[in-house]
Amino acid sequence: VANETGAFFFLINGPEIMSKLAGESESNLRKAFEEAEKNSPAIIFIDELDAIAPKREKTHGEVERRIVSQLLTLMDGLKQRSHVIVMAATNRPNSIDPALR
């Protein structure tokens, strides 16, 4: 898709963005979105979305809840600012937080 449109392509592999350090996963997401905005038009592709954005009511960890919230905030901000499209893939669509579907 990025090749056909001439857009900058930014790949986020869900499990790789996760960090053990508090706040670093969210920071990694912010950096990815900032990079895409700087290079817009751009496409952000999140592979294995279910690894970073599970249903908030079913997760036991605070990190996952914060990442879902950060992702929603970043995506809301894109509507007003730039030409960035976010696409994602998963093998488990029913496990993704409903706000991201």
Automatic annotation (TrEMBL):
<keyword id="KW-0547">Nucleotide-binding</keyword>
<dbReference type="GO" id="GO:0042254">
    <property type="term" value="P:ribosome biogenesis"/>
</dbReference>
<dbReference type="InterPro" id="IPR050168">
    <property type="entry name" value="AAA_ATPase_domain"/>
</dbReference>
<dbReference type="GO" id="GO:0005634">
    <property type="term" value="C:nucleus"/>
</dbReference>
<dbReference type="InterPro" id="IPR003959">
    <property type="entry name" value="ATPase_AAA_core"/>
</dbReference>
<dbReference type="InterPro" id="IPR027417">
    <property type="entry name" value="P-loop_NTPase"/>
</dbReference>
<dbReference type="GO" id="GO:1990275">
    <property type="term" value="F:preribosome binding"/>
</dbReference>
<feature type="domain" description="ATPase AAA-type core">
    <location>
        <begin position="1"/>
        <end position="101"/>
    </location>
</feature>
<dbReference type="GO" id="GO:0005524">
    <property type="term" value="F:ATP binding"/>
</dbReference>
<dbReference type="GO" id="GO:0003723">
    <property type="term" value="F:RNA binding"/>
</dbReference>
<keyword id="KW-0067">ATP-binding</keyword>
<protein>
    <recommendedName>
        <fullName>ATPase AAA-type core domain-containing protein</fullName>
    </recommendedName>
</protein>
<dbReference type="GO" id="GO:0016887">
    <property type="term" value="F:ATP hydrolysis activity"/>
</dbReference>
<dbReference type="Pfam" id="PF00004">
    <property type="entry name" value="AAA"/>
</dbReference>
